[in-house]
Amino acid sequence: MVKAVRGMRDILPAHTERWRRVETSILQMLRSYSYAEVRLPLLEYTELFARGVGEATDIIEKEMYSLADRDGDSLSLRPEGTASCVRALEEHGLLYNQTQRVFYAGPMFRYEKPQKGRYRQFSQIGAEAYGFAGPDVDAELIALGYACWQQLGITDRVHLQLNTLGSGAARVAFRQALMDYLQPHAEALDPDSQRRLQTNPLRILDSKVAATQAIVKDAPQLIDFVDAEGLEHFQALQELLQQLGIPFQLNPNLVRGLDYYTHTVFEWVTDDLGAQGAVCAGGRYDGLVERLGGRDTPAVGFAIGLDRVVLLHELAHPDHSDNSADVYICVTSAEALSAAMQLGQQLRGAAPGLRVRVHMGGGQLKKQFKRADATGATWAVLCGAENQDDELVIKHLRDAAIGQRQLPVAEALMQLQQI
Ligand code: ATP
Ligand code: MG
Fold first, then answer.
1. Fewest CB within a 10 Å sphere: which of 45, 113, 337, 408?
2. Strand partners, 49
């Protein structure tokens, strides 16, 4: 048998119910904040990501799945959603003279070392707001994330880390100061950080290597380079978060891997997933639209790493049901098959969301009950000779005290829907 590609996972029926629940919960929260969905292609010109994400980032340097199109163009599977989102909104004139609050969801691809919580195909749900320069929308996006964790019952497993990178100019000045400070220590840095010294020195700040961390400890602080306007923005955001009752921790070394961030950066992190601690990351990227060829447009957003959120949900709710049916219709005589299928239709129509499975393949009732039990269904319905015209036999599969009973059809249907 040909196996799946390394780092590409199958999510099997025993897990898809949980995935659906987590996804639906987040997507509904986004809608309830009145964010509108955009659906974006999986393939884009490689140049979009090189320009959008930044040449000197891990993603562009070593994580992209790129291929040559038949006419020689270089295409890449999207490693993240923001560059595509900007491209799409700009291409369709949706950033001109208007604001946008949108979200996207779907798989992303990065050539990484697969491990728990880190895959080569993974899922993100991202939210982005365009045309808002103030800290109000930064706070809204953080509140939206917080509301998602509350709804999923994982609030006590994640905490918010917050930092500001200041304006683009502050970042340039800081970058130089940081390089000047690190240069004399270059030999003592780990090889990755040595390489980044010239290309992306800010990334050295969040290196996990102890020797590098020891050097970084005394480096110049980014916050000292942030101008008055940047500080005001950051202060206002913190006040709003306090008023909203959202706890946070300032982390001066939080810089984010992508090149395009300015001002606010944040990460929701957990201690429960080992090294894969970030479950949602975001911030402001006021320079990105212009960098991709559009007009100067303020922008802010985040991306949730769904795979990690699902792992957290599993820890928080280990007993979550992975049933595949709620009602199982047993067919006790060959002649009753069409009646059973029609009854299934009737039930599905009456109770959207109810999962109704009709037994297929015949066989003894005992075997059918076994199958019904394996789906996790609460009720079995017997469809066959035992049916009187206007009555149904239903059996509770989880509570012997309720057991099997024969009820008028309308009453039976009511029972089955109450799950
Ligand atoms: P990390 O530091 O874990 O590599 P990142 O900074 O590269 O994360 P982002 O590009 O900001 O991640 O993506 C946002 C979120 O997507 C991350 O916080 C994480 O939850 C998730 N994510 C990123 N890469 C992966 C991956 N390879 N597998 C699973 N989830 C991922
Ligand atoms: Mg990464």
1. 113
2. none
What CATH architecture does domain 13-167+226-316 belong to?
2-Layer Sandwich (3.30)
Q: Is the CB of 124 under 6 A from ligand 1?
A: yes
Banded pLDDT at 56 (limits 50, 70, 90) = confident
User: Could you tell me the pTM of the whole model?
Assistant: 0.92
305 lines ligand 1 (CB under 6 A): yes
Q: Is 47 in the pocket of ligand 1 (CB under 6 A)?
A: no
Domain range annotation of the chain: 13-167+226-316, 327-417
Whose C-alpha lies nearest to ligand 1, atom 12? 281
- Using the mean position of ligand 1's atoms as its centre, give its distance from the Cα of residue 74 in Å: 24
Give residue-wise pLDDT tens across range 128-185.
999 999 999 999 999 999 999 999 999 999 999 999 999 888 888 998 999 999 999 9
- Let me know if 159 is exposed, middle or buried by CB neighbors in 10 A (0-12, 13-18, 19+): middle
Extract the tokens encoding 156: 């006590």
Fold classified for 327-417:
Rossmann fold (3.40.50)
